[in-house]
Design goal:
By secondary structure, the chain is α+β, with helices and mostly antiparallel strands. 26% of the residues lie in helices and 35% in strands. The chain folds into 2 domains: 189 residues, BirA Bifunctional Protein, domain 2 (2-Layer Sandwich), CATH 3.30.930.10; 48 residues, Roll (SH3 type barrels). The longest helix is centred in the C-terminal third of the chain and has 21 residues. The relative contact order is 0.15.
Length: 248
């Protein structure tokens, strides 16, 4: 397996790093290729949301992955990416962080990073995955509609971090946690739960494709699904948006 980021392709502007990475992966590009851009004009997040990507204000990164795992095991890759970002922020840049399932990295309760892992599956085989990571670095303010929910490294620390200065330590941590996801997914589950105050005993509302579920968080299943307890019954949530109601 190639080292992640052994090749880094840099662009001034792209519609989406994930779109280009997906096209390259479908054409046979090697695992480990990283794509960054100074600006995205159509950056995407989870659940069809857009990701604001102004020029020079963030790290906009996608990685081509070719994990030899079953499609149903791919959720752990998303968790691994969130851990890598969280550890880079906290250990390399001394920024207190939190993680909200499955992949929102928070500072002061507001999103500083979003992660979107997209996969290609054929005949129950995982052909490739593309891990997209967007990190807010240099924004001083945000549009009104996300002003209360988004933050940046500059806002939180007062420090102006260049994208490449963040990319270097991040790639090393992504490498480590991606390999852990393939070899020992339980280590990824355990570390995610250590880093997230949402993992246990939080009263949450989860918007799922099948409706709203209110309950208490009970950690993660081995698959990476969020476990919610409702009236004494445990449910595994594989897709949804989590909102904190109150701490128990």
């Amino acid at each position: 397996m190639a080292m992640l980021g052994s090749t880094v392709l840099r662009f001034e502007q792209l519609h989406s790093t994930n779109d280009l990475a997906r096209d390259m992966a479908a054409s046979g590009a090697d695992e480990g290729i990283a794509i960054t851009t100074r600006e995205q004009t159509a950056g995407r997040g989870r659940l069809g949301r857009s990701w604001l990507s102004p020029p020079g204000k963030g790290l906009y990164l996608s990685l081509i992955l070719r994990p030899q795992i079953k499609p149903e095991a791919s959720a752990v890759i998303t968790l691994a990416a969130a851990i890598a970002v969280a550890e880079t922020l906290s250990l390399d840049f001394e920024l207190p962080i939190d993680i909200k399932w499955p992949n929102d990295v928070l500072a002061s309760g507001r999103k500083i990073c979003g992660i979107l892992v997209e996969t290609a599956i054929e005949r129950e085989q995982l052909l490739y995955a593309v891990a997209g990571i967007g990190i807010n670095l240099a924004q001083r303010e945000f549009p009104e509609e996300i002003r209360d929910s988004a933050t940046s490294m500059l806002i939180e620390s007062g420090k102006l971090i260049e994208p490449d200065d963040f990319l270097t330590p991040l790639l090393g941590r992504l490498e480590d946690w991606y390999r852990s996801a393939l070899r020992e997914p339980k280590a990824v589950i355990d570390r995610w739960c250590e880093l997230s105050t949402y993992a246990y005993d939080c009263a949450v509302s989860v918007e799922t494709p099948n409706g709203l579920i209110d309950g208490l968080t009970r950690g993660l299943a081995p698959s990476g699904a969020l476990v919610i307890e409702v009236a004494g019954q445990r449910h595994e949530i594989t897709s949804g948006e989590v909102r904190l109601r109150k701490r128990r």
